[in-house]
Write a structure and sequence with these properties.
seven-stranded parallel beta sheet; alpha/beta; 44% helix; globular
Length: 248
């Protein structure tokens, strides 16, 4: 009986929050995971805890050459890339539009949009040319891809842009069996959300309703495990008591 090799996934932003939760969940499910983040020490610790199926790829997603080299290094070790969870992102300081620092705007665009494009571009190229052809790219969109959070113009604008990128990947990937999809996440209990919630509560807003980040990992696993003949184009997972936001 032939033993199938483990499925492979690269997770960006894998050193903390949603990325870390997804990486650990998929490793526990038997996948081989490429761990992308800037903090090499955290990635090495994760690799020591999980063995050879955890491959540290310390890099900055804003660096096109580093992304290409890191993704290629992963495939050189694993022979293929089945899934990219395109997750790395930043949430800048909350402020009225006229008080948002231009540097914050540019940082959000560089990481949340350009960084996600560079990772999708590298994954698309590998998936297009591997044999058998194909794969899946899952973008982390956020509920901010549906509706804004107060004072969060850089984050909201970049996440709306990711929805367009997702649709383009889904369209352009059809001839190559590359599925493009997006998970929009609302209020997973992570350090990033806690920082944003503190800013909001400092303004007098009530504390947000949150969900366990492990629920997000299970939702990503559902999308990742589908055959390439099926695709969840958009999935929203959110804390049940969050205000409803629709894709109108």
């Amino acid at each position: 009986m032939t033993t199938m090799p483990p499925k492979t996934m690269i997770v960006t932003g894998a050193s903390s929050g949603i990325g870390l939760a997804v990486a650990e969940h998929m490793l526990a499910a038997g996948w081989t995971i490429g761990l992308v983040a800037r903090r090499a020490d955290r990635l090495e610790a994760l690799a020591r805890a999980h063995g050879a199926r955890a491959v540290p790829l310390p890099l900055d997603v804003r660096d096109a050459a580093a992304v290409e080299a890191g993704f290629r290094h992963f495939v050189d070790q694993t022979d293929r890339l089945d899934v990219l969870f395109n997750n790395a992102g930043v949430f800048t300081s909350i402020a009225p539009l006229d008080e948002i620092a231009v540097e914050d705007w540019r940082r959000a665009v560089d990481v949340n949009l350009t960084g996600m494009f560079l990772c999708a571009r590298a994954a698309f190229g590998l998936m297009r040319h591997q044999s058998p052809q194909g794969g899946r790219i899952i973008n982390n969109g956020s509920v901010s891809a549906h509706a804004p959070r107060a004072g969060a113009a850089p984050y909201t604008a970049t996440k709306h842009a990711i929805t367009g990128l997702t649709k383009q990947i889904a369209l352009d990937g059809r001839p190559y069996d590359i599925a493009g999809s997006q998970i929009d996440i609302g209020n997973a209990d992570t350090e990033l959300l806690r920082d944003a919630a503190k800013q909001a509560m400092d303004r007098g807003d009530p504390p947000p309703h949150v969900m366990d980040v492990g629920d997000v990992a299970r939702a990503v696993h559902l999308m990742a495990d589908l055959p390439l003949t099926s695709n969840i184009l958009f999935q929203t997972i959110m804390a049940t008591k969050m205000p409803y936001v629709g894709r109108g």
